[in-house]
Amino acid sequence: MSRISKAFFTALWFMLLTLPVMGIKLNLMENRVDWRLDRVLYLGVAAFFLSMLWTWLFSRKKRNLPLIKAPAFIKIDFYGLSANRAVRRGFFASLILGLIAVPLLASFYQTNIMISAMLYIMLALGLNIVVGLAGQLVLGYVAFYAVGAYAYGLLHQYFGFGFWICLPVGGILAALFGLGLGFPVLRLRGDYLAIVTLGFGEIARLAMLNWTSLTGGPRGISDIPRPGFFGIPLNINEATIYIYYLALIAVCLTVVVVLRLKNSRVGLALQAVREDEIASEAMGIDITRAKLSAFALGSCWAGFAGVIFAAKTTFINPASFTFMESAMILSMVVLGGMGSISGVIIAAVILIMAPEYLRAFSEYRMLIFGAIMVLMMIFRPQGLVSGEKRDYQVSALARKEADAQ
């Protein structure tokens, strides 16, 4: 059966299934049946073309062909960017200039969306250290995010500390909590590790919810000050722009640190542990130190992001740190590509900004979101940018020496 005939019968079957729901309306006021066959016809046409597209995608997948072939000058290298140095420099220059100009050209609402996207980029890159590099599945990552936010709120409420003092303190406290979680789960892996970390996240949320004498319980903590600019008073628009640039600098520092970490001895040890713990330990890698380093470094960035989040919203409560936040951050790592920095950034931007810009399709945006997730898992299970692997080449001189021996 040809591709067109399959698509035709699929559309016909889809129209028959949706006819009672979409094509018939009972008018009880006038005791009659209104037929809406035009809607069923539109659905059939859409199902026909979607079936054609689905069959074409599967045919390319079976032949191991790329779904989208990039032009020759956009060759992807180790970092997931163009191997052409001029193209790469031009891309980064235009990207940085565009990001700098966003709060000057965009509205207050758009600037807030961009701040949220950059915070989630920090969170996703921090989780990428634990999940992508070390291979430790963590489902309670939002607890470290909450530690940073509540550290700022509580330190200001009880001691009057400002943003710049609480920023490093929040990161350090989150790292200590990461170490506290890392010690009990050193021998766990896979599903067991995920369950324990999920329980840790729920314990943290319930503690914030029920420890009313300290955290305020469901009421949360309000009147958290925004960061100051050398004592100059700022209105809400100016403070938002200031926080935007702080978040942008924080994201740039996060990318640089994670990129340097990935190519360092610690990062290579984490990747070795991810591939095979037994072989890594046999080669002399300290598994305990590697895992604890991953938990501490990953949670540290979540603490920094939590402090900035508290300064942005000026109000925090346990409802902001639920399991769905952990699931969303983990989805960014998985969809972007475990271990990939550029892929995680792209996935974070898509998953945060797409729901905001699909508000015109509010009735269908979750359906569209779910369909995109399903398509990604079928056609691109390794993520948008697959985990890069190093290629080692033996020089001619080393080959001759090996042959001589």
Q: Can you give a write-up of this model?
A:
The chain is an all-alpha fold and 405 residues long. It has 3 domains: 60 residues; 36 residues; 274 residues, ABC transporter involved in vitamin B12 uptake, BtuC (Orthogonal Bundle), CATH 1.10.3470. Strands 1-2 form a two-stranded antiparallel sheet. A hairpin with a 4-residue loop joins β1 and β2. The longest helix is centred in the middle third of the chain and has 27 residues. It starts with a helix and ends with a helix. 33% of the residues are buried. About 3% of the residues have low confidence.
What key phrases describe this protein's structure?
16 helices; 405 residues; mainly alpha; 2 strands; ABC transporter involved in vitamin B12 uptake, BtuC; 3 domains
- Give the integer mean of the pLDDT values: 81
List low-confidence stretches. Answer: 72-82
Counting helices, strands and paired strands, the structural category is mainly alpha
CATH architecture of the largest domain: Orthogonal Bundle
Element-level helix/strand string: HEEHHHHHHHHHHHHHHH
State the helicity in percent bands.
Answer: 55-70%
**Spatial strand order of the main sheet:** 1-2
The gyration radius over C-alpha positions equals: 25 Å
The largest β sheet comes out as: 2 strands, antiparallel
State the total count of DSSP E strands.
2
Q: What percentage of the residues does DSSP assign to strands (E)?
A: under 5%
> Gap between N and C termini, in Å?
62 Å
CATH fold description of the largest domain: ABC transporter involved in vitamin B12 uptake, BtuC
> What spatial form do the alpha-carbon principal axes imply?
globular
Name the CATH class of the largest domain: Mainly Alpha
- Provide the number of structural domains: 3
Please tally the helical runs, counting DSSP H or I stretches of 4 or more residues.
16
